[in-house]
Amino acid sequence: MAKFLIIGPSGVGKSSVINSIKELRLIEVLDLDSILHGTPFPEYFTKGKEYIESLENSKDILIAVGAGCTFPEFGHKWFTEQLTIVLTGNPKHIFNRSERLQKTYNGNYEHYFSVEFSKAKELLYKSCPYLINTENKCINQVTGSLIEIIKSDTKFKN
Fold it and tell me: Over the stretch 127-141, which tens digit does the pLDDT of each residue have?
């Protein structure tokens, strides 16, 4: 059975895609942020990794992993060894469409970009086995791309 991880910068649409997949009932889904909400860093990554590893291997699951887990000091190697799918897009567009991000970063796009699209995170994203660019795609298109990846993986047993 397979554990698929979805990672990407804050605001790219990880939770939206998880909710879309959940409605289809193709695979069990989990939004790690909903479980670890309020957990400080670096504890967030440690607890998240432990939680993911503790999940039983008898079923397929798709897990949205919060952007905070992708800081380089938290083990990029671990992500590249998993069935990791990166959602990405144009940073400026992601930032501009999200009131939450604008509030979090006090309207400072440069700060958002330096945190969410750092060189280290870019290296991580490029080293993962799957990447979906969400730019100019509706949620159904992104969901469709994700489903194609899941169904093509030999570990997926649905």
Answer: 888 999 999 999 999
